[in-house]
């Protein structure tokens, strides 16, 4: 493993390229998933928040690309294409319904996107911390994106519990401490 240093002083610039490309590819998958979810939830109380989430995910993806350009990191299109294709293939699954959509799909999608938002937030924290070593990283941008991810996860955690109660019964109730972090 090499420890290349970019002009700004960040260590392992090659690994930062891999890391940011992985997050960029994940953002592509998240956009695809939320686009599909939006089609499912049109005309429901979740529609406007899913549209807002989709807009924010697109903006976050664009911001990450901009930071990568500012750092001179290449965008690996093949990673994005692979995640895009993987999201499409993931639609074909055995969920107890051969010809129709399973209610379980609704729950799994909300669980997945809620978890993905936490992973994205962790990436934003990592990049915010790297700003100490690299002045070309926009620390304020990542502060804002972290706060945005917190807001997104709070809403998604609530909806995930509502959808779970709709599928299995019971009451949504409040999130426990681990689910709300």
Q: What percent strand?
A: under 5%
- Give start-end ranges of low-pLDDT stretches: none
CATH topology, anyone? Ferritin
What's the multimeric state? single chain
Sheet having the most strands: none
End-to-end separation in angstroms reads: 33 Å
Helix percentage range: 55-70%
Count of domain modules:
1
Topology as a string of helices (H) and strands (E): HHHHH
Helices, by number, come to 5
What would CATH call the homologous superfamily? Ferritin, core subunit, four-helix bundle
What is the CA-based Rg, rounded? 18 Å
Global geometry: elongated
Q: pLDDT average, as an integer?
A: 86
By secondary-structure content and strand pairing, the structural class works out as: mainly alpha
CATH class: Mainly Alpha
The tally of beta strands, per DSSP, is 0
Please name the CATH architecture.
Answer: Up-down Bundle
Organism: Geodermatophilus siccatus
Protein name: Ferritin-like metal-binding protein YciE
Explain what you see:
The protein has 181 residues and is mostly helical. It has one domain: Ferritin, core subunit, four-helix bundle (Ferritin, Up-down Bundle), CATH 1.20.1260.10. Helix content is 69%, strand content 0%. The chain is built from 5 helices and no strands. It has helices at residues 13-40, 47-71, 77-89, 103-130, 139-168. Helix 1 runs parallel beside helix 3 (77-89), helix 1 runs antiparallel to helix 4 (103-130) and helix 4 runs antiparallel to helix 5 (139-168). The longest helix has 30 residues, at 139-168. The two termini are 33 Å apart. The mean pLDDT is 86. This is Ferritin-like metal-binding protein YciE. It comes from Geodermatophilus siccatus.
